[in-house]
Amino acid sequence: MASNSIHMLFVSSFSLCFPNSSRFQLSKLSPQFKPLNSIPLSGRKHCNIVRFPRERTRTRATIDDVETDQLSSTPIVENEKAKKDVEESVKVLKDAAKTRKVAAEEVLSALSILEKAKVDPSGFFETLGGNKSPGRTWMLIFTAEKKLKGGRYFPLTAVQRFDATAKRIENGVYLGPIGQLTFEGRLSWKKRILAFVFENIRVKLGPFQPLQISLGKKEDREPDNKDPFFIWFYVDEEIAVARGRSGGTAFWCRCRRVNN
Known about the structure:
CATH topology: Lipocalin
Order of helices and strands: HHHHHEEEEEEEEEE
Low-confidence stretches: 1-69
Strand order of the largest sheet: 1-3-4-5-6-8-9-10
Mean pLDDT: 78
Structural class: alpha+beta
């Protein structure tokens, strides 16, 4: 599992702080409690499928394994078949988030369609992070390898909080009464790219008070594509799909805020 999820935000948190974290075998762990109760998945469709004059963003060489076309702010959903493919793919992912019983091959196919669709990202950031602090929380559901060669449902309860107002990010792994591990820092948004830098780690074991450790990364600058980042391909009120800098893809579902 470590090779699959190293691209994801959860494992990125560990790799930023612990260079040898790739040895951590997630496959040997099982969730200590059931995932958070996610917001009910309704039948509404939020595909944001519109057409605009074509524009491209300029990318730097530091963006690894990402094609320039995938940073375009313009969707290419131009016909009824393409729109239907996007809608069906969104439904597959929402079913997968709700049941965790959709076959991995179907999930990977849906992710591939959404990556190629270039849905209009103009509302993504506010949908991810809300319009007031402390923002919104999203549970990691499924992680895929580079180029979508394989993937699986994430075995632990990992929740990300994005705060669009305060430009903050929090990434947590929750193990019920055993404890929790969270990373907190700042983020930036440009087009469909969310870059981030973690500043603090918070560790909580059982009933004891949490211990906070500074990572010494509080320089006054905005995160950019030299830092860890995600490129978002689809976001609505229920699910979100993104690719990490290393090439892995994941999807999340909206969930309730975790009580620390």
